[in-house]
Amino acid sequence: MGVTFRDLQGLSKPAPAHAGLRQHAAASAARRWGRRRGRGGGGRVALAMERGANYFDTAYGYHNGNSERVMGRVLSRYPRESWLLASKFPGYDVSNIRPDRVEAIFEEQLEKCGVDYFDFYLFHNVYGRNVGPYLDPDNRVLEYLLRQKEAGR
Fold this sequence. Notes:
With 153 residues, the protein is α/β, with parallel strands linked by helices. Helix content is 33%, strand content 12%. The relative contact order is 0.14.
């Protein structure tokens, strides 16, 4: 069976793992992991790491919020410098796009993943209804997240 990789190059953040950023096809499927009360994913991550992957993707809403916990637990078995982690702000629920929620959600995600920082932090499911709230300076979403980026988180 062949292994499918996505080569992700040209990133500006100078971290050791970025030198050969590779995502195994199984590593992007965290939304399907942890189906049994937070268990699962360990074998898939081990296989992905063994085959050269170092980029793993999860999100706040995957598996009713369990994916980040599973991913954090599984990745904690490996040296932090050997993998990259992406998570996403759940702006698909527009009620999350407000100053008090963005900070609470970001901090909760760090805790659930068991990390001090994310290598990548994305806006999840950007669409017509949430673009305005994301860009509204009163919601302070970009302001807060850019401060976290500057702080190395």
